[in-house]
Amino acid sequence: MCGRYAQSADMRELMEQFEVTGSSPKQSLPANWNIAPTNPIYIVRADAHERDKHALATLSWGMIAPWIRDVDEAKTSQSRAINARSESVHEKPTFREAFKSTRCLIPADGYYEWASALGEFAPKQPFYICARNGKQLPIAGIWSSWRAPSGNIIESASIITQAAHGDLAEIHSRMPVFMPHNRWDEWLNPENNEIEKLVSLLVVQSPASIVIARPISKAVNSVTNNSKELTSEIELGAPETLF
């Protein structure tokens, strides 16, 4: 987790749910039901000028390591850094500085996961996992800025993941960290840099109870397929069953 996800909301919806009163993009991103690494995505972060306000921004998915010097290498490195493990995000060279001061929320309609051989489902069976309450999933993330040799600034972000809990562990060993509403301000505050406290914010009780998973068509396997139908539930034949 997590290699693909969906985001179809426009800016007004996101600004309302995530209490954005700071800056925002000039225009909405198009709905994307099959977001892949390096694609443009939304994040919610502290406003650059008024730190107590939430800002909505767009950047690319996959953190560019701070030591990268070549644009082509930067693009390649993004695909390898779309996720940061909660257990080590504060230690890994690619992520640790961003974890200290440039954290964010990554809103998602839901995300896709492919069954591993760990559970009862056929390997590589895709699932769509979304919030039970029908709202956006507030996924914990980190972001950073990278300066290309040309001087252009490229901002990028990574999703923070944890060990899968509950029934989700029957699908895959990892899942996103969902950030509870009452922790948003503390998580986004760039002046909050106490590592132990930040790590504790990533510990959420019963995270699997927040979402529901449903089996979907393998059409999602191709990034050229992009429509709401990708999230439609299918019926699995015996002996495969859905929790």
Notes on the structure:
The protein has 243 residues and is α+β, with helices and mostly antiparallel strands. The protein has helices at 11-17, 71-79, 96-101, 184-188, 195-201; strands at 4-7, 32-35, 40-46, 54-61, 83-85, 103-108, 110-114, 126-131, 137-147, 153-163, 174-176, 211-215.
Features:
243 residues, alpha+beta, hypothetical protein yedk fold, five-stranded antiparallel beta sheet, 12 strands, 14% helix, globular
Quick overview:
The protein is an alpha+beta fold. It is built from five helices and twelve strands.
Q: Which CATH first-tier class would you pick?
A: Alpha Beta
What percentage of amino acids are in beta strands? Answer: 25-35%
Give the overall average pLDDT: 93
- Biggest beta sheet attributes: 7 strands, mixed
> What is the first-to-last residue Cα distance?
19 Å
- Stated plainly, the CATH topology is called hypothetical protein yedk fold
CATH architecture designation: Alpha-Beta Complex
Choose one word for the global shape: globular
Helix tally equals: 5
State the share of residues found in helices, binned by percent: 10-25%
User: Which radius of gyration do the C-alpha atoms yield?
Assistant: 17 Å
CATH homologous superfamily (4th level) name:
SOS response associated peptidase-like
Q: Secondary-structure element sequence?
A: EHEEEHEHEEEEEEHHE
Structural class: alpha+beta
